[in-house]
Amino acid sequence: TFLLTEPPLLVAATSFGSILCNGGTTTLTVNASGGVSPYSGEGNTPVSAGTYTSTFTDANGCTASATTTISEPAVLSISSIQTDNSCFGECVGTSTVTVTGGTQPYSYNWNPSVGISPIATGMCAGSYTCNVYDANFCFIMQTVVITAPPSIGLTYNEPMDTVCLTNAPFALSGVSHVGGTFSGPNVSGGVFDPTN
Hints:
- The chain has strands spanning about 10-15, 25-35, 45, 50-55, 65-70, 75-85, 95-100, 105-110, 120-125, 125-135, 140-145, 155, 170-175, 185-190, 190.
- The chain is an all-beta fold.
- The strands form five sheets. Strands 12-13-15-14 form a four-stranded antiparallel β-sheet, with no helix packed on it.
- A hairpin with a 2-residue loop joins strand 14 and strand 15 (about 190).
């Protein structure tokens, strides 16, 4: 009579942490149980997102494998639209940023400060930066430049310092601004007539 025995089934096992931000890494831990120790192939390895197959060999040359798939959040992306100021000196510009990827919810912080939401209002002409963090504190930023027309200068085409009632009508013209109109007493169609 013979009694034959065999080692327990050789089992491969893996464990890993989460990847919080796109492009990050985690530690893949691989170990074995059963069979006959010692095992080769065990250990800790830093890895990025992907699929990994780990193979172990015990003291008897028996093998076992485990396949692990590690995921990561989608890459953070940001875009913006804006409305510029239509007049010099206004502070009514707006900007809206749109964020995708990462892990929601997102937090927003504008610098200079014009709010903590994706929609900023009351913006004077200048450069603004929207800093965005997702739920895992992954970061992305967008710079927005709000514009305004330059101030309006006024010139006339008469080579004189004083306008008299006897002067002939002359055209008014704006400086460094397009699309403005002139109005006031004795002004019609951009022409000033002192005799009226």
